[in-house]
Amino acid sequence: MATDRTATPAEKFAYFDERTSAAIVNARMGAGIDPRLRQVISVIVKHLHAAAREIEPTPEEWLAAINFLTEVGHTCTDWRQEFILLSDVLGVSMLVDALNHHRPPGATENTVLGPFYLPQAPHYPNGANICLDGKGEPMVVRGRVLDAAGNPVAGATLDIWQTNDDGFYDVQQKGVQPEWNLRGVFTSAADGSYWFRSVKPRYYPIPDDGPVGVLLRALGRTPNRAAHCHFIVTAPGFERVVTHIFTPDCPYLHEDAVFGVKESLVANFVRVTDAAQAASLGVAAPFWSVNWDFTLVAAMSSG
Amino acid sequence: MATDRTATPAEKFAYFDERTSAAIVNARMGAGIDPRLRQVISVIVKHLHAAAREIEPTPEEWLAAINFLTEVGHTCTDWRQEFILLSDVLGVSMLVDALNHHRPPGATENTVLGPFYLPQAPHYPNGANICLDGKGEPMVVRGRVLDAAGNPVAGATLDIWQTNDDGFYDVQQKGVQPEWNLRGVFTSAADGSYWFRSVKPRYYPIPDDGPVGVLLRALGRTPNRAAHCHFIVTAPGFERVVTHIFTPDCPYLHEDAVFGVKESLVANFVRVTDAAQAASLGVAAPFWSVNWDFTLVAAMSSG
């Protein structure tokens, strides 16, 4: 049955039939319902039934699936979203993000927002150091915000957050890390340039003490996210970019638990030992030097 | 990627790609994991990603789905299983039951067990009345338990339960209905025959005060189950049958909320007004007379 029309009475009132079960379930929907809901449920029912037919779960396996989903639900609290984690580790979050952000070649790609973003981080002038406790290997990130034609975008906002050298965000270590450690908002200059000082981020595990962690272990997968800095880059007239830059030497670069890595987002981290250069940038040698440009697309060209 | 082999290193360590996202997620599974889990997750990921591609959810719709599943999980308690309800109303429970119980033509078909079965109901001699409070329209059910060749099956156990005339099971009305009201276990005689007295069952809603009820209303569907009696029929050497018989005049026969109705399970309910016949059966006239045979298949012939 097509998903875009109401069922005939014969379809709507059909008894269960294993061969046409999804169509029978979908035909039961009423005439006056929201058309988008009709479409969404039709697709979900179709794929649920197709999956059941392929898997042929025993009654015990079906019950195990029910119990797993129940445990995922029971793990969700105001501060822990296990269903988002499940969506993340099954690659669904990245797919939904990709489907919503088709961009032309050369434009900076999106990746997942993640659960550790905080609005209202401190605003800093370019060159400021967002590492407030001095721990970790110094890093200097320099680059420009550009439009699709390569022209500078002045006044763009770069909202930045990352883990410390131990793999924790400030909010995970309240009382240990200073408040707003490794978070800051910067603004691109007239030539589109920005720069900031920080420390090299480290990989870290997603929360794996719940049913999603059990699943990852059963699947032989790591819970670790590849080391990265988060960015949200916005500018009037341009599409918002939610993205990361990844360190190329992270041992989990190719096994990111949430599939957040895209080849275009892996930066070049250059280890600089020159003390004079370090001193001129206000960091100690050796430090990591990263050059990174963001290319924005006009807001209307969003896919 | 095939689901029955371990990924190559190139597959296992691939970055996210929207076009091949499901294969990339599945290739990430480790080498030594349970093969059945590998197969199940491969199918689930394939259909999840295909559904997302067809639906193209906005970020807001994706979050609404996350929140719906979370609410379903939060509604689950020791005595309420909202994920089973969700499986039921989407036809998945019936499909899984059907996939596990392929039987030759003429054999009594399965349907869902439902949440109201209690083991250890009272054993009664044939002819006993399981209606302990005398409420409702009298019903007499008579029939035989047979094998596939039509030979009687003696000593078969028939475990029977149903709602009262108000559409409630005893466990839903503790203190209102007598304990074990409308439940009983009977045994077929040497000629395979059984019979019992009861009252005509009534349709009733599945619990619809949770998110599944919200979904049913949004889909323009009734929460009602078509009126039925439950049976579990067992006999040594035969496959267990979990089934219902449905009343043919129920207004929800063609809209059963969990798709439990199969054409072969709709009985003929004959209204008998003859007082002498009623008296001979120990019921008041008028009463409902139902003839119903169960045909079992040998345990090894199970599909």
Description:
The structure is a homodimer of 303-residue chains. Chain A is built from eight helices and eleven strands. Chain A is an alpha+beta fold and 303 residues long. In chain A, strands 1, 4, 9, 10 and 11 form a five-stranded mixed sheet that branches. Chain A has a four-stranded antiparallel sheet with strand order 3-2-7-8, with no helix packed on it. In chain A, strands 5-6 form a two-stranded antiparallel ribbon. In chain A, helix 2 runs antiparallel to helix 3. The longest helix of chain A has 21 residues. Chain A is elongated. The two termini of chain A are 30 Å apart.
Task: Briefly characterize the structure.
The structure is a homodimer of 303-residue chains. Chain A is α+β, with helices and mostly antiparallel strands and 303 residues long. The first copy, chain A, has helices spanning 9-12, 21-27, 35-55, 59-75, 82-89, 92-100, 211-218, 275-281, and strands spanning 138-146, 157-162, 183-187, 193-199, 204-205, 224-225, 228-234, 241-246, 269-272, 287-291, 294-295.
